[in-house]
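Morning run. Coffee first, then this:
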Amino acid sequence: MQSHSKLIGGILLVSGTTIGAGMLALPVSTGLAGFFPSVLLLIAFWVYMTFTAFLMLEVNLWMEPQTNLISMAKNTLGRTGEVISWAAYLFLLYSLTTAYVAGSGPIVIDIVESLTGYQMPAWAGSVPLLLIFGFFVYKGTKSVDYVNRFLMLGLVVSYGLLIIFLTPHVDIKLLKYSDPKFLLMAVSIVATSFGFHIIIPTLTTYFERNVSRIRQAIFIGSAIPLIVYIIWEVLCLGIVPLEGKFGLAEGYAIGTNGAHLLSGILGTTAIAQAARVFAFFAIVTSFLGVSLSLTDFLADGLKIKKNRGGRLLLYLMVFLPPLIFTLTDPRAFLSALEYAGAYGVVILLGLMPALMVWAGRYHLHFKSTYRTPGGKIALVCVILISLLVIAIELAHKSGLINFLKY
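And here it is:
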């Protein structure tokens, strides 16, 4: 009975780490391709990211217990691997923090306007997140853990209510639309939505290196978000039209999220308010975990003591760059998630695991209790897919590809 309880705990750990604010961006980034192409892309990336998670597990089992991702890269790829992993990890955390700061603004503005009739200036929308919830990050892990429990409960309840209330509004005709050429615009954000690999060392310790249990937790724990995402796609793509005000094309152009479009389409109804509340919970729960991780990462890497002055310095280092990016980029929410997916998640959690396994298996000849199936062909496929996603995002950001003029 205890082993089953532990397995459930591991599954929820994977699912909870995976599901975050990136989910809000999925309908906006995938919507122009249509529902069925989007589902196929979600399944493809779930397979890709789950496979690289198993590669990460293989590498982790070569190491001493509680070895982190940066040390894994150093032990297999040397100093170069360590530096790349360190840089990619830092870039990923900053990109995600920026996305959450940017994404919170429109939601706060919408909620305040719907309750009071007052329209806040655009720059002020992100301030409550930084002042109120950033304070918990400033105070430390215990404060974050305490408030996050209530927020997670709110997230689960609001998502359940959305499913109940939105399902009758779904238009099957909207779900039948399909234009697969627009899938390219979604690959980096979809990759971001399946990033949970950083907790694999924690899982290895939690299950006392029991490979069977760890594999079950990874497989089931990553499949749950896939189902959650598909249901979210049904609700959003079945209600939000392609064109017009609050349409998917406009949403992508201005860099907003799916819940914002839903609330705009549904007007000032209670359902629209529920969508805003769900989006707020999704962003804040993700914001707390990621910004706390970034704080700890900077404190450890730069040897900053967590006294009053050190905490204030870390607060400014963590939140000032994302705030500046948010105020200078009108579509900062989507842009930051796209950067996070292509240059953070895909490099750190896609490309690096394949390179580490290649080095460990075929050059360093490490032995382990677990070996991911597929051999060299599978590793080459992962490397090529990772490089392709990076190339697509490079072409997009450099202007070689303009998705809206496709």
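Residues 255 and 334 are 5 Å apart (CA to CA). Good start to the day.
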